Amino acid sequence: MSFTQILNSINGLTEEQLLMLNSCVITEIKTARKKRSASIKGTLTVGDRVSFTGRNRGRNARRFTVEGDITKIKRKNAEVRADSGLTWNVPMTQLTLLRS
Questions:
Q1: What would the pLDDT profile of 41-85 be if each residue is shown by its tens digit?
Q2: Which candidate among 13, 54, 55, 73 keeps its CA 20 to 30 Å from the CA of 61?
Q3: For the chain, what is the radius of gyration of the CA atoms?
Q4: What is the Cα–Cα distance from 25 to 44, expressed in whole angstroms?
Q5: No. of H helices and E strands in the chain?
Q6: Is there a contact between 50 and 98 (Cβ–Cβ < 8 Å)?
Q7: Taking the CB of residue 23, how many other CB atoms lie within 10 A of it?
Q8: What does the alpha-carbon distance between residue 9 and residue 19 come to, in Å, rounded to a whole number?
């Protein structure tokens, strides 16, 4: 079944069925993120040089690239000390390894 066919079949669902579908989709997304996070976590160590996209506070805030070193690896996040001296708590899935 193509993605377009799936979208078209959603139109005929009741509100209760849509809520059940939403729950299933959210569960699948969370599972995929956990797997990706676990695989990334296995490749990162304290001291690795990483980058990620940071932003100022606010909904439409300016985004910018931040580089720094991992100072601590937590269950889902890594603590990164940026070159500016700030410490960021960053989800593993948002980190890009620059060098070990």
A1: 888 999 999 999 988 777 777 888 999 999 999 988 999 999 999
A2: 73
A3: 19
A4: 29
A5: 2, 5
A6: yes
A7: 10
A8: 15
Distance CA 2, CA 83 (A): 46
Ramachandran quadrant class, 35 (left: phi over 0; alpha: psi -120 to 50; beta: rest): alpha
Q: How far apart are CA 91 and CA 59, in angstroms?
A: 19
Helix (H) / strand (E) element for 80: namely strand 77-82
> At 53, which helix (H) or strand (E)?
strand 49-55
Task: State the amino acid at position 43 in one-letter form.
Answer: T
- Tokens for 52, please give them: 């990620």
Residue with tokens 């269950």: 75
In 3D space, the residue among 48, 46, 47, 52 whose CA is nearest the CA of residue 93 turns out to be 52
37 secondary structure, DSSP code: H
